[in-house]
Amino acid sequence: MAVMTMIQAITQALDLELARDEKVLLFGEDVGQSGGVFRATDGLQKKYGDQRVFDTPLAESGIAGLATGLGLQGFRPIAEIQFFGFVFEAMDEIAGQAARMRYRSGGRYTCPVVYRAPFGGGVKTPELHADSLEGILMQTPGLKVVIPSNPYDAKGLLISAIRDNDPVFFLEHMKLYRSFKQEVPEEAYTIPLGKANVVREGKDVTIVTYGAMVNTAVQAAETWAKTRGITAEVIDLRTISPIDIETIASSVKKTHRAVVLQEAQRTSGVAAEIVAQINEQAMFYLEAPILRITAPDTVFPYAQIEDEWLPTQTRVIEGLEKVLSM
């Protein structure tokens, strides 16, 4: 078993799937000889050739359109959107074409495309690079949305996404790329899409989150346990569409309280959906209202005030105290 960063785990997953299936193709802006902005595809064009790993023009609509066509012709394209904030140019193909293909054709056709994109705050990027727009994707029927929080999950979930017969949007938080290492098997393995993971067990309150906020939640829970002797259970969604409501509801039925944490803005989105589903599935087990901890409803700020905008461990602890006092 190797010790690797999340970016290394992603590269290895891409490498293994390119080697396993000649129908897997990888393309996007600067993913070939340059190896991508974050070097996620480093060395793959040299290994597999420029017919399978290649650069595209700076046109997200063209990248997504090419992916749709290739998917319909039996290929398994992996299309990189260089930064998630540029996804708007590609949404017609993603939401209007690929995600509808199985329904539109009555099951005759599928579109096994993986869209990869880095996103997320905490690294002081320029405008449109860090935006958390996953709530928009979540509202698209036919599209699965995956957001790993660690190297082990990133590799297993990406391999599952590439092998899936429907379109999957795979979001990679930039702050997690090289911030820590983890033991990861060198061979191929899969993690089921749509299955959450209880990363920390507790009995007093449930924290539901995903992506980089998983680490924030775990740190807050551990600090809280040391200072207050109260334990929080932390659930990593891993996949935000579909949501594993069974795991969430089971935890809430045990703890009777819930906090939902997301990096994205407050209105709509993942946290709001989870609150709604908990109310539908476990409302009579709750002893307090469900609390959301999110970024404010503003445009993602400039780098100078980014740290004040993003949810922090302190805000999570304050939220935990509040929900326990209700």
Q: Any overview of this molecule?
A:
This protein has 326 residues and is of the alpha/beta class. It has twelve helices and 14 strands. The chain has helices at 6-20, 44-48, 60-72, 91-96, 101-104, 134-138, 151-163, 213-228, 245-255, 269-282, 306-309, 313-325; strands at 2-4, 24-28, 53-55, 76-80, 114-119, 144-146, 168-173, 182-184, 197-200, 205-209, 232-236, 239-241, 258-265, 291-295. The strands form three sheets. Strands 3-2-4-5-7-6-12 form a seven-stranded mixed β-sheet, with helices on both faces. The chain has a five-stranded mixed β-sheet with strand order 9-11-10-13-14, sandwiched between helices. It has a two-stranded antiparallel ribbon with strand order 1-8. Helix 8 crosses helix 12 and helix 9 crosses helix 10 (269-282). The longest helix has 16 residues, at 213-228. The model has no long low-confidence stretch (mean pLDDT 97).
Topology:
Elements: E1 2-4, H1 6-20, E2 24-28, H2 44-48, E3 53-55, H3 60-72, E4 76-80, H4 91-96, H5 101-104, E5 114-119, H6 134-138, E6 144-146, H7 151-163, E7 168-173, E8 182-184, E9 197-200, E10 205-209, H8 213-228, E11 232-236, E12 239-241, H9 245-255, E13 258-265, H10 269-282, E14 291-295, H11 306-309, H12 313-325
Parallel strand pairs: 2-3, 2-4, 4-5, 5-7, 6-7, 10-11, 10-13, 13-14
Antiparallel strand pairs: 1-8, 6-12, 9-11
